[in-house]
Amino acid sequence: VVSAIGQGMAGHAGVSGRLFGAMGSAGINVVAIAQGASELSISVAVAEKEALRAVRAVHTAFGLTRLVHLVMVGCGRVGKELLRILEQTQTKLLEELDLQLRLVAVARSSKFIADGAGLSPGSLTPLWASAENRPTDPELLARVLEEHFTDGILVDVTATDTTELQLLALRSGLHVVTANKVPLSQNLAQYHEIMKACRKLGVRYNYETTFGAGLPVLHTLGELVNTGDELLEVRGCLSGTLGAICSWLDEGLPIREAVRRAEERGYTEPDPREDLSGRDVARKALIIARASGMELEPADVALEPMIPGLEVGLDQALQAAEGPLDERLAVAHSKGAVLRYIAEIAPGRVHVGLSEVDKLSPIGSLSGPDNIFVFRTQRYREHPLVIRGPGAGVEVTAAGVLGDVLKIATSGRRPPRS
Ligand SMILES: NC(=O)c1ccc[n+]([C@@H]2O[C@H](COP(=O)([O-])OP(=O)(O)OC[C@H]3O[C@@H](n4cnc5c(N)ncnc54)[C@H](OP(=O)(O)O)[C@@H]3O)[C@@H](O)[C@H]2O)c1
């Protein structure tokens, strides 16, 4: 039996609404209800195995604690930076937002560390040497759910297919924050499955950093779509890696050097062929198209690779591409133009590829790893809405991931819908 006890409850509207709302949002079934004649308490009976979660849900609903549990998968470049920012900001979050983000588990491809009492984000490195083997996805979730928390977020900073894990997490009532594009950019049925799981359980799925790193592109797109605007076209450079490479080519750096430099600066995907094949941009473009309401499959994206023939090997493909790229670049420069790797998303049509653009245009003047998104909509028909800024780099990406976590931690669940 879980009881909410307090003086003056009878005179306060909404106390029982908040109590039952908390139970409902946490998916806890109330078996019986009792209210004392004194009106100093309301008691509910729940299944014994749900009791601890029920107490935590009620504490959160009444603002007695704001404790959010984080389960992190991936601890590479972005993951390590996220841990650093978590360590650095935890005191400030507690003092200013009264919010505690408790890291309870971290998984890598083959290792796993968990502690329900909380791991110190800044002290994980020495723990990996003696860490246990990574459990399977269902076992991993069962382990973290043993802690009976109600406010939990799975933070995905891997670059692998984590669809099964994400779906299991959503269906177990965890919110998901992902920088990982893979689950959202495979077949349409899988995309719908993820979105349906969120709607059904009222859990949140934040994926702002799957494109544009920390730039508020998805947020802007959501506002345009939700306020009834009609998207005519999104055009832009969605890859910080290819943007930086294109600007270095303008400066005369050979393609092989440019790719090496991008790798050294941490701009590339774990496998640089993901960037150079255009697949990374194609995935981002598909996610944007789907977020705008287009029902497209990966095969619907027309893709012209930045570097063709990568199947034979990176070095060989770069060597073969050098001559043709130099020629194309010389032609473009002679016309006052530059080459940029551009994504074009219009209703029912997505194209990504290398194009000539005027050097002085917004896209042509882009330099380094910056991204640019030019939205043409019914409302922004004459003067497009432009978002521009750093679109790659572990620092801005990790900060964007934390931003997505905070959006959930400070607002909580949505009411479930069928
Ligand atoms: N770097 C950027 O600037 C940037 C920008 C925007 C978005 N992103 C996205 O952020 C994500 C992470 O990028 P990154 O640069 O940090 O990649 P990374 O350095 O290669 O790190 C990937 C991490 O994922 C782990 N991992 C792989 N499979 C796993 C599994 N099944 N379960 C748990 N962990 C697993 C790896 O484990 P091991 O440690 O065992 O190898 C590694 O720790 C990617 O999806 C990327 O597209 C990156």
Strand and helix layout:
Elements: E1 2-5, H1 15-25, E2 32-35, E3 41-45, H2 51-61, E4 67-73, H3 77-97, E5 100-107, E6 111-114, E7 132-133, H4 137-145, E8 152-156, H5 163-171, E9 175-178, H6 188-201, E10 205-206, H7 217-226, E11 231-237, H8 240-250, H9 255-264, H10 273-276, H11 279-291, E12 301-303, H12 314-334, E13 337-346, E14 349-358, E15 370-377, E16 385-390, H13 394-409
Helix pairs in contact: 1-2, 3-13, 5-6, 8-9
Bound molecules: NADP nicotinamide-adenine-dinucleotide phosphate.
NADP nicotinamide-adenine-dinucleotide phosphate binds at residues 73-79, 107-110, 157-160, 179-181, 209, 213, 266, 269-270, 392-394, 397.
Biggest sheet, in brief? Answer: 7 strands, mixed
Series of secondary-structure elements, N-terminal to C-terminal: EHEEHEHEEEHEHEHEHEHHHHEHEEEEH
List the ions, cofactors and other small molecules found in this model. NADP nicotinamide-adenine-dinucleotide phosphate
As a percent range, the share of helical residues equals: 25-40%
Rounded average pLDDT: 91
The number of distinct β-strands equals: 16
Give the N-terminus to C-terminus distance in angstroms: 29 Å
Spatial strand order of the main sheet = 7-6-5-4-8-9-10
Flag low-confidence runs.
none
| Cα-atom radius of gyration | 24 Å
Note the overall shape: elongated
What structural class results from the helix and strand content?
Answer: alpha/beta
**How many DSSP helices?**
13
Question: Beta fraction of the residues?
Answer: 15-25%
